Amino acid sequence: MEIIAEIGQNHNGDMKLAKDLILSAKENGADVAKFQVFDTDKVFGREGNDWYDYNCSTQLSRDDVRYLAEECRNAGIEFMASAFDAERVEWLEDVGVKRHKIASRSIRDKALLKAVIKTGKPIIASLGFWEDEDFPVIFKYSHVDYLYCVARYPAELEDLHLGSVDFDLYSGFSDHTTGITAAMIALSKGARIIEKHFTLDKNMYGPDHSCSMTPVELKRLHDFRCQLQRSL
Prior knowledge:
This protein is α/β, with parallel strands linked by helices. It has one domain: Alpha-Beta Barrel (TIM Barrel), CATH 3.20.20. The protein has helices at 15-27, 40-43, 52-57, 62-75, 86-94, 110-118, 157-160, 181-188, 215-231, and strands at residues 2-8, 32-37, 78-83, 100-102, 123-126, 144-149, 172-175, 193-197. Helix 1 packs parallel to helix 4 and helix 8 packs parallel to helix 9.
């Protein structure tokens, strides 16, 4: 069982805060510190985007990626990121990521998927926007861990239908609910991977902070995981 602390954009464009988040993620039991690497105009656009300026401020440069990867190495936690275009896949390859993460919104981006598959590295793919009955064919010859996900921000517990999720098919759960109850249920049902947004303060400015787990919640989730592992 592993826990991915999805820092995402919760660094708010502040590399000092990003470092603090990495250190806190490690200290409180996360196995991975994960970020998002994107071009704001290509991914989000300006029109109808209330968070456009925020997205621009949290857009990571190639130097930022190198800095964050180094800080993760220094902290002893795996660095991971969702790249949103083929160029940024190369950025992640440059810093030696072990695995690649495909976000729900990118699951049909063929150019991106081909770039990730070409690396030959393991893939984690969230299926929050995947409505087909079968898993994506494009990953047929790759090692992929699929994450069950309901792409609502925040998602409500009743939206998840976790009781019907087969965690022999899904490797894990990408959790967008408030609190850690859903993540604990998923672990108890056999999820091997939990990905959840992580923040130092739910009251910070930004779209993801309010439904992110805090260091205290991360520690509780880590302790719950340890209890489950001892019982197996």
